Amino acid sequence: MNEPASADPAGVPSASQPHPLLADRPRLNRIVSNMDITIQRTLYGHTLGHGQERLLHGGASARDVLQEALLDLLRYDPARLTASWEGLSVTIARRRAVDAVRESAKGRRAVEAAADDPDQITVVAFDALLDEHTGAAVCGWDDPEQAFACNEQQKVLRRLIRELPEPCRTIVNGLHFQGRTRVEVGKEVNLSPQRVGQIYAKTLPALLEKARDDPDFPTDMAREEMTSS
């Protein structure tokens, strides 16, 4: 996953009383990191690896969207807050990411369109483009608080995956986070799809048990939700 943007962006209006999140930098940094995950999962269907970047059609990146979402969050009037900053941050990040996908859809032709079809009748529908980016349903989008907790779980899992030996690390990361097939991962690690599946089936349960013992891992969600990527 890319390093999160700075939690002190330019352009935040000054006030006599500091924003409550600016007064609690550890909490703000955690929220920014979580927003980064929300945006990447909306734009790409999964989080990117460290140092990776991918531009949308039109040139926008996850980092650009994150900066805009963070400004929105820090400009939000605390008096209007009805839930938590964590839940609001997911809502804002998701909305900004969806807007970025919508913007990237402007003027884009459908893949199946004939070369001589007019542009105005072959442009990709927004809903189809969003499905293309997000892939399968992502844990908790309808409940921002739950989505925040799900992202926190995925952060712990990613950290633990980095500690795995190869080829377990590539297999779990590829199947669980990147949505790759066993055939694709098998070619990378020079193993059969069947062997890839066996290693994944053995490694993931042990990884989840280790995650549950991690102090940073939210444990108030159903076990099935832990495995959502």
Question: Which helices and strands, and how do they pair?
Answer:
Layout (H helix, E strand, L loop, with lengths): L24 H20 L17 H13 L10 H21 L13 H4 L3 H9 L9 H19 L5 H10 L4 H8 L3 H20 L10 H4 L3
Distance between the termini: 13 Å
Number of E-state strands: 0
Mean residue pLDDT: 75
Q: In the residues, how many domains can be counted?
A: 2
Give the amount of beta strand, in percent: under 5%
Largest sheet: none
Low-confidence spans: pLDDT under 50, at least 5 residues? 118-139, 221-229
Number of helices: 10
Pattern of helices and strands: HHHHHHHHHH
- Tell me, briefly, the overall form: globular
Name some characteristics of this structure:
229 residues; mainly alpha; Arc Repressor Mutant, subunit A; 2 domains; 10 helices; disordered C terminus
Description:
With 229 residues, the protein is an all-alpha fold. The chain has two domains: 25-134, no CATH class; 144-226, Arc Repressor Mutant, subunit A (Orthogonal Bundle). 56% of the residues lie in helices and 0% in strands.
Provide a brief overview of the structure.
This protein is mainly α and 229 residues long.
